[in-house]
UniProtKB/TrEMBL annotation, chains A, B:
Residues 168-356 form the S-Me-THD-like C-terminal domain. Residues 8-165 form the S-Me-THD N-terminal domain. This is DUF917 domain-containing protein.
Length: 358, 358
């Protein structure tokens, strides 16, 4: 089924993607600015389903790469994302049928739309994370054992690199991250091309539509002066885990990532208890008084108590009133291969995955 | 004219290339070991002249890249260099007619021979420096304004990167250096492919033959118990600049380069004076009592007083008896564009180039 992405979809996509970003992926609101300009200047983007792809169609998986704070200063750029796609087409000697997001969470939710506007190709309603994750090997395509190369990376100066082979997903991450850092910690990438068959089998489907609908649910609750957090929980089948006030943040940028902990003192029913949330770009684990109450791959979302707006790991700060909720993870992330890639141990926590939803 | 490179040519090539390396490029003796194995196992390499190339022949310009000390532990590897060449052929969809050295100075003198043995292609008797230099933009091809991309880089783990575009020679250097560092500071590269016409116009010709002949002159002098340094001067038209004893070395590895100064106290006619030699991988400048007596692009060669063996910037040490000599630079390095790329100011010395030979 084909439909057109409209200017009216931009704000809900930003709100929904920011929640699904579970603290990471960078704020989508800055990318939304460029998207609004494109819509207003007459660009229109079609959205298609994974099921609309032929087996042998080629799909470009696009994402902005870099440090979130740099991404706040230099907006995701349709020309640059488009160049990453055409660089890959030049390398392959083949054209892409469509583009899709690497991750629906955070600012990269708009990467496929910006690339689509630049190239005239439709967006596939799918991604490879169902959320945001910090590393290249943390995707459903990696979990499916698909090839991780080639990858194209372009910067604003006309540098263009193709990683034509990588010894592993980790090596792909290391090499592309280094190049990205050297060109200023902001670049556009086109990941390993996927066939229509691969996207149907290993993609996480419908996530663009889900993000927009989630954002709409929040907007609707706000307009009706209802509780937006209740709306998120009801809409997405989530669970409320904790409510409180941020009392401390311990944050460091290391090895190209934002790592650290945020501490929340309980309010209401949680008064007298203390929450500790560990993160690597995204929220990875939540401990209440030393006991894990939520962990990756369940989506841990820290939301502003009043507005329901997502709070990022780079913007969380002392004094914020927050609600921690969990949303269900895509099924593939909960398989043994999925947990190896994105379970608590992949983030350094020596714990077996226990879902909030099981 | 075509001739065969023989096992007997290996030792003279190593000795000659080490002198032409002007302190850098890494010792060629370790690369010579792999070349000897290849010769003994029946590999034979043909050497052709640049004049033998057709206008549209494609030539692969190969070199090992990385930190000299890592290159002492992991010998330049024919399989790896061959993979850099075939990776580029795969990318181009075209075959190379021949391979050539990026730099004749130091260990990279053997890069083309190792790649030739691996791929069955002949070696062009030419290079792009006539010596060794530390950075990508310091070549006759860069001085000629030729394109700097694409470049292929492969490592021992099956990682393979193509820099398909670069905004400048400096950017090519920065990006490829970063990837090289990430994969362990040792990699094989195939630089931007050159046509036969480009090699004829912008290559520095005959440098393989020159290096072998220079090495033979040293060997012959040693065998005759004559002064090998006199032999180098006579053979290559050089000038003796200083004689003394190394009294101090101030050396630091920074930004992927070996930088520093070596201090030599005069002996014989130079007694009572002091020499200070500045280097960035290669010897760049020589000051006697504060006055420049030799500078890049003239080749500054520090040779062991007794053996005539070259002394590298990474091996120079207290107590060595040394002779500093200068050999003439290839003409192209002395043009205005050449001096901009490799003159004293390119190494941070605010001096006009004054040749020992003018």
């Amino acid at each position: 089924m084909k439909r057109t992405f409209l200017e009216d979809d931009i704000a809900p996509l930003a709100t929904g993607a920011w929640i699904l970003g579970t603290g990471g992926g960078g704020s989508p609101y800055v990318s939304a600015l460029n998207m609004r300009e494109l819509c207003r200047s007459g660009h229109s983007v079609e959205v298609i389903d994974a099921g609309d792809l032929d087996d042998d169609d080629l799909v470009a998986v696009v994402s902005g790469m870099g440090a979130p704070l740099v991404g706040q200063e230099r907006l995701r750029d349709p020309v640059l994302l488009g160049r990453a796609v055409t660089a890959m087409e030049d390398y392959l000697g083949q054209s892409f049928r469509a583009v899709m997001n690497l991750e629906i969470g955070g600012g990269n939710a708009f990467a496929s739309f910006l690339a689509a506007a630049a190239t005239g190709k439709p967006v596939v309603d799918a991604d490879a994370m169902g959320r945001a994750y910090p590393e290249a090997q943390m995707t459903s395509f990696a979990i499916g054992g698909l090839t991780m190369y080639p990858l194209s990376l372009v910067d604003v100066r006309d540098n263009e690199v193709i990683v034509t082979k990588a010894a592993s997903w980790k090596w792909m991450e290391r090499i592309s991250r280094r190049v990205c850092t050297e060109v200023g910690s902001t670049a556009a990438t086109c990941k390993a091309p996927r066939t229509g068959r691969e996207v149907r089998q290993w993609g996480i489907h419908g996530t663009v539509t889900q993000a927009i609908a989630l954002g709409r649910a929040v907007q609707k609750a706000r307009a009706a002066h209802a509780d937006p957090i209740e709306a998120v929980l009801a809409h997405a089948g989530g669970v409320a885990l904790f409510k409180g006030k941020v009392v401390d943040v311990d944050r460091v940028t290391s090895g190209g990532f934002l790592r650290g902990k945020a501490y929340v003192e309980g309010l209401g029913d949680d008064r007298g208890t203390r929450l500790e949330m560990g993160f690597q770009n995204e929220w990875a684990i939540a401990m209440r008084d030393g006991v894990a109450i939520g962990m990756t791959p369940d989506l841990l979302c820290l939301l502003d108590t009043v507005s329901g707006e997502a709070i990022g790991t780079e913007t969380v700060r002392y004094g914020q009133r927050v609600n921690l909720i969990a949303l269900p993870a895509p099924q593939i992330l909960k398989t043994p291969a999925g947990l190896e890639a994105v379970g608590p141990r992949a983030f350094g926590y020596d714990l077996d995955y226990k879902s909030v939803f099981s």
